[in-house]
Amino acid sequence: MKFNFTSADLIELSVFFVGNKQNSESFFAPDNVAIDLSKDLKATLSNYFLSGFKSLEAYHFWHESEINLNEVFSFSEAIFDDISSFKSKSKNIARHLYEKSVHPRILGGELYISYFKQCIIDDEESDAICIIKSESKESFIKTIFTSNEVDITIDTGLNLNNIDKGVLIFNIDKENGYKVVVIDKTNGSQEAALYWKDYFLQLKIRNDSFNQTSNTLGIYKNFVTQKLDDEFEMSKADKIDLLNRSMKYFKEKDTFDMDEFAGEVIGNPKAIESFKTFKSQYEQEFDSPIADTFEISDNAVKKQSRVYKSVLKLDKNFHIYIHGNKELIEKGFDEGKHMNYYKVYFKEEA
After folding, report:
1. pTM value?
2. At a CB cut-off of 8 Å and minimum separation 6, what does 39 contact?
3. Which pLDDT score, from 0 to 100, does residue 322 have?
């Protein structure tokens, strides 16, 4: 997803302290406290709240029974329907987080709940609710000059360039649990890591074009690097060629078509059936169906291209980068040296 927060306007803000309930820490929710959102404060807070939300996977709220039983969804819906309920519903959200903060390794911290107008997501304007939890503090030096002395003190506060946990809820597609993006820098424990995304928010990944594109590329990469060796004898150069061809397909096409992709990229009928089986197993295991045809997301392709490797590593001496025609590289074995070798054809040096 693409975001544009240039015109985003912060119009409401509530601040709470949410401690660890299991550790008998407090929950502090000041009543009727008005925060003076001056121009400079709004600019600083807006940048802090929104800057961490970039090209992230999209989620949606869910509940195993019915969506209205998801607390954060229900409170968010009430706020979107009536902005005058912001103070009371944001307090409900904070209280709900406190009730979920029961693992001993969950850290207490300030909870900022804000409301923005004029956010742009995928070229669509939307209001948004932003929830930020600040858990880690940093020390800083404060120096005060007077006419006769210099006073230096050590204080602690927030790092405005770092968000521990956050969620941005857009008033889009309410029927399917809204469009939601999340930040979650976990703190080491699997159980503690689950509480923000799974216990507090109850989110599932949206099955949109970004995730369909990202998942298909990820599945195919795992298929080539992990599965093909079980059924075919392939060199690393051949595997890199298959990865390069798949990335080329996704960069050149606007729409993914399973049969077209299989024919143009994989080619071998046995390998095609193996890939389809591999993909089906993923869909069942993660309960995440992928359509045979979908619109390709350029952002997802860019993200996946960073982990698609086209490097052939040879001992500790050489790396060969393969970007094009694999017919220009040949593998052999030198009987005299008892070593493998690659022969590379080229017209000129760069």
Report:
1. 0.71
2. none
3. 65
Total residues belonging to the chain: 350
Phi/psi of residue 129, nearest 5 degrees: -105, 125
Q: Which pLDDT value is given to residue 188?
A: 57
In DSSP notation, 245-260 reads HHHHHHHH-SEEEHHH
Question: In the prediction, which pLDDT does 330 show?
Answer: 75
- Residue spans of the domains in the chain: they are 3-205, 209-344
3-class SS of residue 26: coil
Least Cα distance to 27 among 90, 129, 110 occurs for 110
Look at residue 297 and give its three-state secondary structure: coil
pLDDT over 90 for what percent of the chain?
45
Distance in angstroms (rounded) separating the CA atoms of residues 279 and 29:
48
* DSSP-derived pairing of the beta strands 165-170 and 150-157: unpaired
Low-confidence ranges of the chain (pLDDT < 70): 1, 32-34, 55-56, 157-158, 186-193, 309-313, 317-327, 350
Instruction: Specify the pLDDT at position 320.
Output: 65
The pLDDT value recorded for residue 286 is 76
pLDDT at 146: 78
Contacts for 286-292: CB closer than 8 Å, 24+ residues apart: 288/205, 288/207, 288/211, 288/215, 289/207, 290/207, 290/212, 290/215, 290/216, 290/219, 291/212, 292/257, 292/258, 292/259
Encoded tokens for 347: 């017209």
Q: What is the DSSP string of 194-206?
A: HIIIIIIS-EEE-
Q: What is the DSSP letter of 179?
A: E
DSSP code of 229?
H
Q: Look at residue 280 and give its three-state secondary structure.
A: helix
Residue 232, helix vs strand vs coil: coil
* Alpha helices by DSSP H, 26-131: 39-50, 71-81, 86-100
